[in-house]
Amino acid sequence: MPTTPLMTVTGTTLVLAPGPGPGPGRPGRRPARAPGPYRRLFALPGTRGFTTGNLIARLPMGMFGISAVMMIAGQRGSYALAGAVVAAGLAATAVVAPWTARLVDRHGQARVAVPATLIAVLGSLSLVACVRTEAPAWTLFASYAATATTPNIGGMSRARWTHLLAGDPAAHHTAMSFEQAADELAFMLGPVVAAFLCTAVFPEAGTLAGAALLLTGMLVFTAHRATEPPAAAPVRGKSPLRSLGRLLPLFFVLGTMFGSLEITSVAHLGGHGLGALSGPVIALQAAGSCLAGLLYGTLRPRGLPACLAVLAGAMALPWAAAATGSVAALAAALLAAGMATAPVMVTAMSRIHAVIPSDRLNEGMTLAVTAIFAGISLGSATAGFTIDHLGTTAPYALPAVAALLALPLGSGRLVPDFRTRLVRQSGTVENGVTPCP
Fold first, then answer.
1. What is the distance between the alpha carbons of residues 147 and 162, in angstroms, rounded to a whole number?
2. Cβ-count burial of 189 within 10 angstroms (0-12 exposed, 13-18 middle, 19+ buried)?
3. Whether the Cβ atoms of residue 276 and residue 200 lie closer than 8 Å to each other
4. How far is Cα 322 from Cα 299, in angstroms, rounded to an integer?
C-alpha cells in the first residue's frame, strides 16, 4: 500500500520532510553498492593512462628471448647459437638492469627510461639486420646485449602505486596484486605471441613487434608525469641485494626452469614438423598458469615449500609426455606444469614485498627479475646445447631437475626487517611496533 509523503512548513514554503529510511516492513531504495577495490583503484587520476602503457610495454618482456631463438635458429640452423646469443644478452641484463633501476630511482622515470628504451630498441633492430644479412656471429651477440638497457617496467609501475597510495595499505595491496597478475600474464602470453608471429608471419616478426610494443608502451607510460614518483636522493642502509640474498638463488633456479622448458618445447615440436603448433601448445601452459593464479588468489595461501613440491612433480610430466611422441599428451603436461607455476611465483614474489622497503622497491624487484633472467640465460644455453647433441626429448629433464633443485632453496624462513615492516604498514613509523628478532 503506498504511503503518503510527509509534509512540513519551512518559513512560508511547504516541502517534503525526510521519511523513514528503508527497514523491515518499510519500502525503500536499497543503498548503492560500494565500488570494488579495482574500480576505486583506477578511479584515481592518471592511473588508467600509465597502466595502459605499463601493460603494452610489459608484454615484450616475454617475447624477446623466444623470438630471438626462433629467428636465429631458423636462419642459421643452430639452436646452440641461438641459445648462446640469448644467454649472453640475459647475462648482460643481469649486470646492466640493476644499475638502470638505480638511475631511475635517483633521476626520475621519464628522464632515464626513455633513452634506455631507445638503446634497447636499436639493439633489437640491429639483431634483425644482422640475421637477415648473415653478418658474423659476434654481431648477434653484440646486438642482443644492447637490449640489456630495457627498464624494468614492472618495478616502475609498482613505484608509482606506492607513491600514489601512501598511507592506504588496503589499496596498496590491491595495486600490488594487480601488478603480480600483470607479470604472470606478460611472461606467459609473451612467448605465445612471439611463437605465433615467428611461425605464422615471418621469423623476424616477433622481434620487430616486441620492439614496437616496448617503445610505444614506454612512451605512453612516461607521458603521465603527474603520477611519477619524485627522484630520490641516494640512500644508505641495508642494500636490497643483501635483503634478497636468500631469495635470489631460488629465482635463478626457477629462471633456468623457464628457459629450458620454452626452448625445448619449441625445438621438440619443430623437430617433429609441428612448428606451427608451438604457439597453441605453449598457450596451454599460459592458460594453465593464469587460471591457477586466479584460483590460487581465492584460496588460503600455501607455504612456498608445498608449492615447490607440487611444481617438482608437475615438471616431470612434460619429460614423460615427450617420450610418448604424442602432441596431445605433451600439451596436457604443459598445461599441468603451467598450473603448478603460478602458485610458486605468487608466493615467492610476496616474499620480496616482505623484505624490501617500498622506497627501494624498483631496485629490489629488478634484482629479482635479473636473477630470473640470469637463470633463463643458463637454461636457454644448456637446452640449446643439449638439443643439438641429444635430440629434443632428453632436454625435458632440465626443467624437471631445476624444479627439484628449487625445493631446498624455498624451505628457508624469511623475516621482514624492521624498516620494511614500517614502510609496508603506512609509510610512517607507528607506535608499538618493535623490531623483528
1. 27
2. buried
3. yes
4. 32
Report residues of the chain scoring pLDDT below 50: 1, 3-17, 19, 25, 414-437
Distance CA 162, CA 357 (A): 11
In sequence order, the β-bridge partners of residue 8 are 15
List beta partners, residue 9: 14
Please state, rounded to an integer, the average pLDDT across all residues of the chain. Answer: 78
Annotate 344-355 with DSSP letters as a single string. HHHHHHHHHHHH
Neighbours of 253 (CB within 10 A): 25
* CB atoms inside a 10 Å sphere around CB 429: 11
Does pTM top 0.90 for this prediction? no
Contact 310, 404 (CB under 8 A): no
Q: What is the pLDDT of residue 427?
A: 39
3-state helix, strand, coil in the chain (%, to 5): 75, 0, 25
Q: What is the pLDDT of residues 101-115, one digit of tens each?
A: 888 878 888 899 999
The rounded distance, in Å, linking the Cα atoms of 203 and 194 is 9
Phi and psi torsions of 155, nearest 5°:
-65, -40
3-state DSSP assignment of residue 69: helix
CA dist 255 → 187, 198, 258 (Å): 12, 23, 5
| Rounded Cα gap, residues 425 and 327, in angstroms | 49
H-run or E-run covering 432:
none
Only one residue has cell 517534503, namely 16
User: pLDDT tens across 138-164, in order?
Assistant: 899 999 989 989 998 988 888 888 788
Using DSSP's 3-state secondary structure scheme, residue 278 falls into helix
CA atoms of 244 and 248, how far apart (whole Å): 6
| Amino acid present at 16 | L
pLDDT digits (tens, 9 = 90+) for 74-102: 887 778 888 888 888 878 887 888 888 88
